[in-house]
Specification:
The protein is of the alpha/beta class and about 250 residues long. The chain contains 12 helices and 8 strands. The mean pLDDT is about 95.
């Protein structure tokens, strides 16, 4: 069955103490208000992962990193490996976020290698895709998303793909307060599900979780999550406040 997920992407925010407080507060709320079939995920800065994973009830809340190295281990100063993330207790890793693609020059080939390494280390991958404004204005958005998925992701096996969640994040909606309209979100999610079907078949496509990201908040989550091909959200700014994030989880 298709899993519903609400994942918070904390980005480079919160000190360790603030992060553990946020994790604790979300945990306290969700222990009282069972999120039901929705899986909440906290994608914290890597240095907070072990502490936040320890503080939350892992039967209810999962944790994840926001990036990992494509290398297994070795002399790569400053990098963080998939096995380190796994050993900190995390379940997920976000790969291909537009901020990694644009500020850190991560391309499709690198993201494919990162995906393979993460999956080998038994992490689940939240794989991000999405077009910039100019690409949408030029009507290239479907083509861009197709390329990102076909080159960066789709060479993995069926078995590996079962551990992948796709996040569609139109770059023009990230952190801007501008959200994709329901029609724009639904048509792209439907398109993405169709691409998964072409490559992996109908059963896997129907079971694939596709998240929407980009200024999703407590005010618009209801509408976005009611769309047939939207299975949850990847939440940036609104995941930094416990009340807002818990309200979004309650939107299903
Ligand atoms: P936003 O970020 O919710 O602040 O727009 C989403 C994301 O970048 O994952």
């Amino acid at each position: 069955m298709r899993k519903k997920i609400v994942a918070g992407n904390w980005k480079m925010n919160k000190t360790l103490q603030e992060g553990t407080e946020l994790g604790e507060s979300i945990n306290n709320y969700l222990k009282k208000h069972n999120p039901g079939q929705v899986e909440p995920v906290l994608c914290t800065p890597s240095i907070h992962l072990a502490a936040v994973t320890d503080i939350v009830d892992n039967n209810i809340i999962k944790t994840g990193a926001q990036n990992c190295s494509e290398k297994e281990s070795g002399a790569y100063t400053g990098e963080i490996s998939a096995s380190m993330i796994k050993s900190a207790g995390a379940t997920y890793v976000i790969l291909g976020h537009s901020e990694r693609r644009s500020y850190f020059m991560e391309d499709d080939d690198l993201l494919y290698n990162k995906t393979i390494t993460a999956l080998k280390n038994e992490l689940k991958v939240i794989f991000c895709c999405g077009e910039v404004l100019k690409e949408r204005e030029n009507q290239n958005h479907f083509q861009i998303v197709r390329r990102q998925l076909e080159t960066g992701l789709f060479n993995i096996t069926d078995q590996q793909f079962l551990n992948v969640v796709i996040a569609y994040e139109p770059v023009w909606a990230i952190g801007t307060g501008v959200t994709a309209t329901s029609q724009q979100a639904q048509e792209m999610h439907h398109f993405i599900r169709g691409l998964v079907e072409e490559k992996y078949g109908n059963t896997i496509a129907e079971d694939t979780t596709i998240l929407y990201g980009g200024s999703c908040n407590a005010g618009n989550a209801d509408e976005l999550f009611s769309l047939p091909d939207v299975d949850g959200g990847l939440i940036g700014g609104a995941s930094l406040k416990s009340d807002d994030f818990c309200k979004i989880i309650g939107s299903f």
